[in-house]
User: Fold this.
Amino acid sequence: STLPVSNYFCPTVLVKGNFKDAANAFEVATDYEIKACIKKLEGYGTTLTQAVDFYLMHHQPSGGVISVQRAYDLYLPHLEKLNRGDAYLNAVRGQYVGPFVKAHANLRLIDVTPSHAEKWIYESKKDVSANSKKYHIKYLRAFFNTLSEHPLAYTKKELNPFISIKSPESNRGDDKLTEKERVLPLEDVVCFLDALRKEAAWDILASQVLVLYCGLREKEARRIRWEDINWKRHSVTLDAKHAKRLQRRVCKIPDNALLWLELCEQKMPEWKTRSDNAVRQKLQRVKQSLREKLIENPESFEGCKFEFHQNCCRVSFASYSYEFNGP
Assistant:
């Protein structure tokens, strides 16, 4: 059958044969040349698919000419391989990247310009908050940056249309906080962990201890099980498949954190599992309950604020680690 031919034609491995000749054979522009190159490859014991795969992998001929929709279809499986959580994937699909793709589905990837990006952020999204605009820019930058490394998309990072878009000034107080202001007071940490203890939320208590004292991320800590903790060496091992950056880490467990974890292990010999959404809801209820108690009886919670800003637990670990270990 006649094959579609263009400079953007073609795909993974030549099983046998001379790679250079195979690549040269596919620098063609007509049906006649296609037939000629097939004949040229016959002696190498390869199939046409194998030769085409090799050509795509090593010469990246598509160079951004795939559509935005096709690029998006390649992007989603890539995120799943990176172990991105459901919340992140849902945000990509429904809130940040998906709507942009739907509006520009038929455009070629290389034809998306900073003008498209600016129009999308400041016209199509004019009614959303400055903070939301920042997230749109962040997610869409990641979309185009990732595609720059994909063999079937292959656009240059410097051509990312969202790179030159300036993030708007945010009027939300949480965004203007310094890292120091995000750190939880010691009194807050004690009350927070004790509230989880009283709720008998042993799995959540253990994961929060791992964030506060060992520096794990929230989602990483929720993937830990007892077998990942070395009680003798006072360490916890995070498997690469559960790590955000897909790199195995071994984190030290301080003595005070070990006491909390031993308590949790006694009360919960088999680690209970909950969905990420269930954990978030439980944490929100506990934090809200602490705020209400502070209002009702401030004398009993002297020194407490119960202002749980974004990433406050992990930022608090950084402060704690600096205090005990130095810079």
Q: What stands out?
A: The CA atoms of residues 97 and 319 lie 35 Å apart. Residues 1-19, 25-30 have pLDDT under 50 and may be disordered.
